[in-house]
Recover the amino acids of this structure.
């Protein structure tokens, strides 16, 4: 079966959910080989990759791989493309993943498709364009197809793989070492789950009214153990940080429950949340487009409804 390389995204030794999604997609194309770059590989991490179908795990567990930003990861993948001749390479369409994918395409003289939302036999990538209004299928016609797939594009499904381990030594050129990591500042990890991995997301839009008023959204999120999201209107106004923006130019989320408060439901916002299992909209305008998408809608002022909802949740 054709080998499909999957670059593992990991934080502090833990495999991120998007990698499990990529392994699930890779199985539709062939035999997935996970590629672990940097320190922190462990028996637990390997078991997790095996659980989602990795037949092979290439491990380049050296500090040097993570000490020079993204270039060594590109070098590692380029080395494996040359030695293993995979049928495709999958990376997460995160900021780092897309940079690795772009550099890899140049290095291996291959075609690349970014922001894929699915893969079809071929290998052909599915992309969602015009804010989710149109889906297109695209094929790479040159070199080894490289696909950067958006997180939450698919649901990870377990399937046991052999996870045969192969240690790899990456040969880095002087150019690969040109940028060096001089300091790592740990991002403050709040009590809330990560936006793209959360089971529940509570998002606020222009209807929230101000940065201070976002406390109302945060209180409901904390009562539900949810992540907080925001529309672009709210992030552009400086009411909430841009990293929490949901939508076409923000993050894609696919939680079990998405609560949109004071969000009209513009197509660019929908593009980032329309695959949520259950959508609840709170909006004072009964004609707001978000109600076309919502499973449950509450027409009213969010400043009255959201605190009441929080109070009810807190009682349970
Ligand atoms: P509005 O559209 O102004 O809606 C506010 C809603 O709040 C209204 O429906 C109103 O009835 C309701 N409301 C007001 N007060 C209350 C209240 N007290 N109680 C209850 N409801 C109330 N947008 C994104 O979100 N994410 C993106 O990634 C994104 N990318 C974009 C990319 C491009 C290229 C472009 C052109 C636009 C993009 N946008 C994106 C912007 C998008 O088009 C909308 O402008 C934006 O989503 C609107 O945000 P909103 O729903 O919060 O604000």
């Amino acid at each position: 079966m054709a080998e499909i390389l999957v670059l593992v995204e990991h934080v502090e030794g833990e495999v991120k959910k998007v990698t499990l999604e990529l392994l699930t997609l890779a199985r539709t194309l062939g035999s997935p080989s996970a590629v672990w770059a940097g320190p922190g590989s462990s028996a637990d991490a390997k078991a997790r990759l095996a659980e989602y179908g990795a037949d092979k795990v290439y491990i380049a567990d050296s500090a040097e791989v993570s000490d020079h930003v993204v270039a060594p990861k590109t070098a590692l993948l380029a080395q494996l493309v040359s030695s293993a001749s995979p049928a495709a390479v999958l990376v997460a369409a995160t900021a780092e993943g897309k940079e690795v994918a772009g550099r890899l395409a140049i290095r291996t003289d291959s075609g690349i498709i970014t922001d894929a939302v699915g893969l079809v036999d071929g290998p052909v990538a599915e992309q969602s364009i015009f804010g989710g209004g149109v889906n297109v299928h695209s094929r790479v016609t040159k070199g080894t197809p490289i696909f950067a797939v958006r997180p939450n594009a698919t649901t990870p499904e377990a399937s046991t793989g052999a996870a045969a381990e192969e240690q790899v030594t990456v040969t880095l050129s002087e150019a690969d070492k040109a940028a060096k990591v001089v300091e790592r500042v740990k991002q403050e990890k709040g009590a809330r789950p990560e936006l793209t991995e959360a089971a529940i997301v509570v998002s606020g839009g222009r209807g929230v009214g101000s940065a201070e008023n976002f406390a109302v959204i945060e209180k409901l999120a904390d009562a539900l153990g949810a992540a907080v999201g925001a529309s672009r209107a709210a992030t552009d106004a400086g009411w909430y940080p841009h990293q929490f923006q949901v939508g076409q130019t923000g993050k894609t989320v696919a939680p079990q429950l998405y609560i949109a408060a004071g969000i009209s439901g513009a197509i660019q916002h929908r593009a980032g949340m329309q695959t949520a299992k259950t959508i609840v909209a709170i909006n004072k305008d009964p004609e707001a487009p978000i109600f076309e998408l919502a499973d449950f809608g509450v027409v009213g002022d969010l400043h009255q409804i959201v605190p009441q909802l929080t109070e009810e949740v807190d009682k349970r």
